[in-house]
Design goal:
Blueprint (H helix, E strand, L loop, with lengths): L4 E4 L6 E2 L4 H7 L4 H21 L6 H15 L6 H10 L4 E2 L3 H10 L4 E5 L3 H10 L8 E4 L10 H4 L1 H6 L6 E5 L2 H10 L2 E5 L15 E3 L2 H9 L1
Parallel strand pairs: 1-4, 1-6, 4-5, 6-7, 7-8
Antiparallel strand pairs: 2-3
Helix pairs in contact: 1-2, 2-3, 5-10
Length: 223
């Protein structure tokens, strides 16, 4: 392979977005998982709608709006204290357990790496710092700089621009299949981390490789 750099999605790929369900479950027993799932689904839906309609706001606001919706949809009373606590969780999301070892292997081999995320600049910086992942990346690229969310081509272009490489020379890594489809269409070499055993999207496009964890990414690049 002619992979010269790696670009990672953050939410769901490096950071477990469903880890917020633990706090939601403590707040509202029996509803934590449903709230976490609705929250994530609505969060992604809002990024798409806002991009399609040219109504960009940063991911922090999108995340808060999606949380408000998820709680009302699940019939729970979201107090200001509970809202603040749940939003704070998004700046301290749990990193997947294999991340440090896999990223260390890649870093030790001199592979340039970046994060390309829908997350706002402050939001992703806090999350990477809390999970002790910030030292692995040469670039942390936020959609804030283009005012659109994935899967806009302007977002994916940030990777080649940052590294001075063609998209085909960069491995794009995401656990979100829709993100992988967009990145593959754009021209990246892609690997889908199917962490949640989901079916492939029916969009007429396939990733170049598949895996289940960052260990598979390190094995793929370094083999």
């Amino acid at each position: 392979m002619s992979i010269k750099a790696i670009v990672f999605d953050a939410y769901g790929t490096l950071l477990d977005v469903y880890s917020v369900g633990a706090l939601a479950e403590r707040l509202w027993p029996g509803k934590g998982a449903s709230i976490a799932t609705t929250w994530r689904d609505k969060q992604i839906e809002y990024t798409r709608l806002r991009t399609l309609c040219d109504r960009f706001v940063d991911f922090w606001q999108v995340t808060g709006d999606a949380l408000d919706y998820a709680c009302e949809a699940n019939g729970v009373d979201l107090t200001s204290d509970a809202r603040r606590a749940l939003m704070d969780e998004y700046e301290e999301l749990t990193a997947f357990s294999e991340n440090h070892a896999a990223l260390t292997r890649l870093q030790d081999k001199g592979v340039p790496m970046a994060v390309l995320t829908n997350g706002s600049e402050g939001m992703i910086a806090a999350a990477l710092r809390a999970s002790k992942l910030e030292g692995f990346f040469d670039h942390v690229l936020s959609v804030d700089s283009v005012g659109k969310f994935k899967t806009s081509p302007e977002v994916y272009q940030m990777g080649p621009d940052a590294f001075g490489l063609a998209a085909s020379e960069i491995l794009f890594v995401s656990s979100n299949c829709w993100d992988i489809c967009g990145a593959t269409w754009f021209g990246y070499h892609t690997i889908w981390l199917n962490r949640y055993a989901q079916p492939m999207e029916r969009l007429g496009v396939e990733p170049h490789a598949r895996g289940k964890s960052l260990t598979d990414v390190a094995n793929y690049v370094l083999s």
